Amino acid sequence: HRMPSYALIFMFFTMASVGLPGTGGFVGEILALLGAFEANTWVAFFAATGLILGAA
Question: Of 1, 4, 29, 40, which is least packed with CB atoms within 10 Å of its CB?
Answer without folding.
Answer: 1
